[in-house]
Design a protein that fits this description.
Elements: E1 3-8, H1 13-19, E2 24-31, E3 42-48, E4 53-58, H2 67-74, E5 79-82, H3 85-96, E6 103-105, H4 106-113, H5 122-130, H6 152-163, H7 165-178, H8 182-200
Parallel strand pairs: 1-4, 2-5, 5-6
Antiparallel strand pairs: 2-3, 3-4
The structure holds manganese (II) ion (MN).
Manganese (II) ion is lined by residues 28, 30, 158, 161.
Length: 210
């Protein structure tokens, strides 16, 4: 059973102390839709230490004041592991008005090393590296509900998006070394912030494409 901790607005200072002990945290967010930030808003932030735990935060959607979460995001000593951070980092930086530092993206990495597959969804990686079948049916559910109105199924669903990421990172990192693509991966991650700026400026297409 995943241990789930729930927070309104921001994590507590005790939670911050606990999370700051870790050198890497898995992160995911849910929004009211995929068009962040102009149409849709950041609804939920999930963190995991990789020990089958999920820290679920429902930010205040009027003020988006969450200084403790921001401390984690801006802490360069904590690697934030996510899947398709192009979406999550964009929303976090825009709504929480912060800079997300030290990020590691399993989707970008998967595309660079799992060239034998066309499928780079989180559920594909969880199946390959953790042997678990993820049920993605709740991915488009109403995440704007109050935290205490979210069903157990919704809470488990959004926890599943973070609890496997540490294991996935370990495996993909080994493959990056084996395939000698670590440097290429790191360059891609450096570009990610620019990619997000392009998205937010309306350049959603690949500007390098002919
Ligand atoms: Mn998610």
């Amino acid at each position: 059973m995943t241990k789930i901790y729930k927070f309104e607005d921001d994590i507590s200072s005790d939670a911050l102390k606990e999370l700051e002990k870790h050198s890497s945290l898995a992160i995911d967010t849910e929004g009211s839709g995929l068009q962040i930030p102009h149409r849709d808003k950041l609804s939920l932030i999930q963190l995991s230490t990789g020990q089958n735990d999920a820290w679920i935060i429902s930010p205040n959607r009027k003020t988006y004041k969450a200084p403790n979460i921001v401390k984690i995001l801006e802490n360069n000593k904590i690697t934030k592991i996510g899947h398709y951070l192009r979406y999550d980092v964009s929303g976090l930086e825009y709504f929480l008005k912060c800079e997300v530092k030290n990020i590691w993206d399993s989707k970008v990495c998967s595309k660079l090393v799992r060239t034998y597959s066309q499928n780079h969804g989180l559920k594909d990686l969880v199946l390959e590296f953790c042997g678990k079948k993820l049920d993605k049916r709740l991915s488009s559910s109403d995440w704007n509900k109050n935290l205490n109105e979210l069903t157990d199924a919704q809470l488990q669903y959004c926890s599943n998006d973070v609890i496997y990421l540490h294991k996935i990172k370990d495996e993909l990192h080994k493959m990056l070394i084996r395939e000698q693509r670590l440097e290429l991966y790191e360059s891609c991650m450096k570009f990610l912030k620019t990619r997000i700026k392009l998205d937010q400026s309306g350049f959603t297409e690949d500007i390098f494409q002919h």
